[in-house]
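User: My collaborator sent over this chain with a note saying "see what the structure looks like." That's all I know about it. Can you take a look?
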Amino acid sequence: MNSLEIVKQAYIYLNEKDIPRYFSLMSPDVEFYQTEELPWGGRYRGFDESKVFFSKFSPLIDSEVEISYYIQAGDKTVAIGKTSGVAKRTGKQFSCNLAHIWTVQEEKIVRLEVYIDTDVMKAALI
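Assistant: Without extra context I'll predict from the sequence alone. Here is the result:
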């Protein structure tokens, strides 16, 4: 698979909530990043820390990602779209614009930077 196909497959697994298959696309040293303004934000490296990232947001939100388009730039794939769902504790629905920057090397995802409309997400959480 090329890098775009790998990223598209990652979204399929993510929306199916199939985290083991999602991680099968990752390098063991994968790095996740999302702003620390969100309760699950931070920098996570490797499978164990990256699973902490998921364990922090999965009790707080139920969401799906819909990508509108992709931009290829070398080993980077930028995905532009929305994440929509509900904040579990408040019951508030949200729809946030997003940009995800994926780095794929040797057919494995080595980095994911997650950028969303943080203000919209924070409003749903409180």
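A starting point for your reply to your collaborator: Residues 3-125 form a domain with the Nuclear Transport Factor 2; Chain: A, fold (CATH 3.10.450.50).
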